[in-house]
Design brief:
Blueprint lengths: L2 H6 L7 H10 L2 H26 L4 H6 L6 H16 L4 H16 L7 H26 L8 H15 L3 H11 L2 H6 L5 H28 L5 H16 L4 H24 L1
Helix pairs in contact: 2-6, 3-5, 3-12, 5-7, 5-12, 7-11, 8-11, 8-13, 9-11, 11-12
């Protein structure tokens, strides 16, 4: 959604906080850039700590797992997930804000878009906490000699998921939320919160397999963090299936390559 479109549809009938949220949602590229800047700054700060842990080895710092406290792991997962997912929520928030504006003009009851955003973020915060718990509890549970096979399987599985009907259904609802809102419109705070949570679950359905690669690539690995953030943001803000399919083929090829290399090297 461009600035020109947002300017032609001023959200004058919404409360100030809701109108400001709609104004930001009308500028998804700016929001995405801001989140990427925050994510980059987070990555560099993590890299600095990893360099210290690795004795100054840049390769180990970039491509190795992070040895961090439980609290830092939770904070990093929350920051990573929210920085990657908030830009992709912009079309959803703007669509709801425009529908709410039209309803407010008619004197109908509306609920602030902030409640919708809260429901969406609640799903991703829960996902981040679950991922952090998984890393903390199971990081050392898998034998090291299983790692190559599990890594290859994870890549192939994530690649195959890119071609499934569930992936495309979730991605379509994330990209085009109007039909979801039209069919499930709510006028209570609880209902709008659940509507936002439903959209959050759809977006989680798009991304869970990709985010699972964070574990096999080295949990909170700076390279994986940046690469997955850029890809998933582009996929959500794009159109068509070509990017999804290219990503799926690349993941499958990577998994097969890892398996072959492991077979050769033993």
């Amino acid at each position: 959604m461009t600035d020109q479109v947002s300017n032609s549809f001023a959200l004058t009938h919404l409360p100030p906080a809701a109108a400001r949220l709609g104004w930001l949602a009308a500028r998804p590229r700016a929001v995405a850039v801001a989140c990427i800047v925050v994510l980059t700054a987070l990555g560099w700060s993590v890299l600095g700590g990893a360099l210290t842990q690795s004795g100054g080895s840049l390769w180990t710092a970039l491509c190795g797992p992070l040895d961090a406290s439980m609290s830092l792991i939770v904070v990093l997962w929350l920051a990573m997930v929210l920085a990657m997912m908030l830009p992709t929520a912009a079309p959803m928030i703007l669509t709801y804000a425009e529908i709410a504006e039209a309803a407010a003009r008619k004197g109908e009851r509306i609920v602030s878009p902030l409640m919708l955003a809260a429901g969406y973020c609640a799903v991703w915060i829960a996902a981040a906490l679950a991922a952090a718990a998984g890393q903390i509890l199971f990081a050392d549970a898998v034998p090291r000699h299983w790692t190559p096979a599990l890594t290859a399987a994870a890549f192939v599985g994530a690649g195959l998921y890119q071609f499934t009907a569930l992936k495309h259904a979730c991605l379509s609802r994330c990209r085009q939320p109007f039909s979801v809102f039209f069919l499930n419109w709510k006028t209570t705070p609880q209902g709008v919160f659940r509507l936002g949570a439903r959209q959050g679950l759809d977006c989680l359905g798009c991304c869970w397999a990709m985010m699972a690669l964070m574990f096999v690539g080295g949990a909170m690995n700076v390279v994986w963090m940046a690469a997955l953030a850029i890809y998933m943001t582009a996929e959500k803000l794009g159109s068509g299936r070509w990017l999804t399919q290219i990503g799926g083929l690349a993941l499958i090829a990577t998994g097969i390559g890892i398996f072959i290399i492991n077979m050769i090297t033993g």
